[in-house]
Design a protein that fits this description.
The structure holds two protein chains of two kinds. By secondary structure, chain A is an all-alpha fold. Chain A has nine helices and no strands. Chain A has one domain. The longest helix of chain A has 31 residues. Chain B has one domain. Helices cover 79% and strands 0% of the residues of chain B. The chains are: A mainly alpha, B mainly alpha. At the A-B interface, helix 7, helix 8 and helix 9 of A face helix 4 and helix 5 of B.
């Protein structure tokens, strides 16, 4: 499943391209909103970074199941033999990879445009981004499946997702802040633990409840 | 049965008002403003109770597929959202003279506000799905996710910042309230709990009649 989605994505590149241009536009908007003051920019950078990830993530994840709908494959998913949670994991893996690629590129754009030096912070930053993205995609995939068959889905998906994601958001922004300030990871251990806990909770709930969403 | 419950709730509420305004003494430092607590604390308790019931009813629905469980979740979520709103409003009115501001991004305020938005989303999702059975399934999943998210929200927001006064009743060690104030508070908690049960019973019945009328 993941393989199929990634293959489709690699062939068409439509989501990835659109997301990249979207993030680029976001960067411009951030820049215009904040003005050229470098210090202020540095202070809000972690928040901006995650705002960028979240916004492009919402656009990307919202599409995960629409592809199936547009191509009339929804029934195929419903009738697929075996465990439905395999579909969940497949979709999750697909969106996780997509998100990580987008995030890596957004990060590169941030370095380019805002002239931040990430070098020494990179390992810690990677860990935080990885943990945050797993939770984000785990919940996002579940909610995307839920809203795919609903009226006003583009609207409902972020409305449902954002408040539930608050813990992940707070934890990632705080941890990113600390990492960018070169603080040792041990200082933000409680945030990392919270992220791990959130990842586990969302994954387990997703696996257990996905069956009920793909019933009809 | 429901009617009896309604009268009981009304009676308890009247007792709560009398206890809160007449019997409980004026608080020394905050003055009469403190009496808002007799509304604020019970509504907050009912809100959490309501969302707990949503969780249990959601699990029950997914396990048994009984429409009654879904109706219970639906009714409880609606009442819970109303009471969360009341909690926030009453807290705001108390906060203005006491903290000098209607709203601050304190840990507990923030987590209740997030709870409010989360369950508003839950009701929105219900409204957006026409097929009753699917609405029940999706909302049950969301009800479970939202409830499990509550502790995560709580900790994240708590570490983020806190300013709220620590809980006064449910905490380790003896309560620090004078007995008259504590009694008034507990009477109001009971009264609002009865009111919650009454509202939910009424709403469940209304939902059942609705589905029967449409069937």
């Amino acid at each position: 499943m993941a393989w199929k989605d990634l293959l489709v994505e690699r062939r068409s590149k439509e989501t990835l391209n659109a997301l990249l241009f979207f993030s680029l536009a976001l960067l411009f908007v951030f820049q215009f909103a904040l003005g050229p003051d470098r210090e202020r920019l540095a202070a809000v950078l972690p928040g901006l970074l995650w705002l960028g990830f979240i916004l492009s993530g919402i656009l990307g994840l919202g599409r995960v199941f629409l592809v199936e709908r547009e191509n009339d494959c929804w029934e195929g998913l419903l009738l697929a033999p075996g465990d439905k949670s395999a579909i969940y994991l497949g979709k999750l893996a697909g969106s996780l990879v997509l998100m990580l690629v987008v995030e890596a590129l957004v990060l590169a754009l941030f370095v380019l445009f805002f002239d931040v030096d990430l070098g020494p912070a990179l390992p810690g930053l990677t860990l935080v981004i990885l943990l945050g993205t797993v939770g984000f995609s785990a919940l996002g995939t579940l909610f995307a499946a839920m809203t795919a068959q609903v009226r006003a889905r583009e609207l409902l998906f972020p409305v449902l997702l954002l408040p539930v994601l608050v813990p992940v958001l707070l934890a990632t922004v705080k941890a990113t802040e600390a990492v960018l300030l070169r603080e040792p990871l041990a200082d933000v251990a409680h945030w990392l633990k919270l992220l791990v806990a959130a990842d586990v909770v969302y994954l387990v709930v997703g696996l257990l409840t996905f069956d009920f969403i793909l019933e009809g | 049965m429901t009617r009896l419950l309604g009268w009981l709730a009304a009676l308890a509420l009247a007792a709560g008002v009398i206890m809160g305004f007449a019997i409980a003494p004026r608080e020394a430092t905050q003055g009469n403003v403190q009496r808002i607590m007799y509304l604020h604390v019970p509504t907050a308790w009912v809100a959490y109770l309501a969302f707990g019931v949503v969780l249990l009813a959601s699990i029950a629905y997914l396990a048994r597929r009984a429409p009654a469980a879904d109706r219970l979740a639906h009714a409880s979520a609606e009442v819970g959202v109303v009471f969360t709103g009341l909690t926030i409003a009453a807290g705001s009115i108390w906060g203005k003279p006491t903290w000098g501001t209607w709203w601050t991004w304190d840990a507990r305020l923030t987590s209740v506000a997030i709870l409010f938005v989360m369950y508003l989303g839950y009701l929105l999702l219900r409204g957006m799905i026409d097929d009753g059975e699917r609405a029940a399934r999706y909302c049950a999943v969301l009800g479970i996710v939202a409830a499990l998210d509550v502790p995560l929200v709580h900790f994240s927001v708590y570490w983020w910042r806190t300013l709220h006064q620590p809980p006064s009743v449910l905490k380790p060690g003896a309560a620090t309230m004078p007995p008259a104030i504590l009694a008034a508070l507990l009477v109001n908690v009971v009264a609002f709990t009865l009111l919650y049960v009454y509202f939910v019973a009424k709403r469940v019945r209304l939902l059942r009649d609705e589905t029967e009328a449409l069937a």
